[in-house]
Design a protein that fits this description.
Blueprint lengths: L4 H8 L3 H9 L7 E2 L5 E2 L2 H15 L4 H12 L5 H50 L4
Antiparallel strand pairs: 1-2
Length: 132
């Protein structure tokens, strides 16, 4: 079963120009074409797109993703390199998550601080109001 670029765009929420860009950048090197030159995406292509989006959304550069794709095309002889690339990426993502968690803790503390200050302020405003 094949999918058109429009169908893939709807399934993935990636705009058609993004899909064409990924193909031009070598991230989707094996997109089949009909006799009329219309792109025909396979289930495997959708799997690749899922991985590409995952890697991109977790901060991997297009250049690094292209390198991963090229390694994959070269077959099982590159399995170790691909594992190492993904392991390094995983470490980077974990580091980013840890950093973001620290920032989130700071934001949470500030919310608690300002909420407490606001509640105190509101109490003083209520006590200063003349009785009705």
């Amino acid at each position: 079963m094949f999918f058109t670029i429009k169908e893939v765009s709807e399934k993935t929420t990636l705009a058609p120009h993004v899909l064409r860009y990924y193909e031009n950048e070598g991230l989707l090197p094996s997109i089949a074409r009909s006799r009329n030159g219309i792109r025909q995406y396979s289930e495997d292509d959708l799997e690749w797109l899922g991985l590409i989006c995952c890697l991109k959304n977790t901060g991997m550069s297009i250049k690094q993703i292209r390198n991963f794709v090229e390694l994959s095309i070269n077959g099982d002889g590159t399995l170790k390199q691909r594992c190492e690339l993904l392991q390094n990426h995983k470490k980077n993502v974990e580091s980013q998550i840890a950093e973001m968690h620290k920032h989130l803790q700071k934001v949470t503390c500030k919310i608690e601080y300002f909420t407490s200050r606001y509640e105190q302020f509101a109490l003083t405003q209520d006590s200063e109001q003349p009785p009705a």
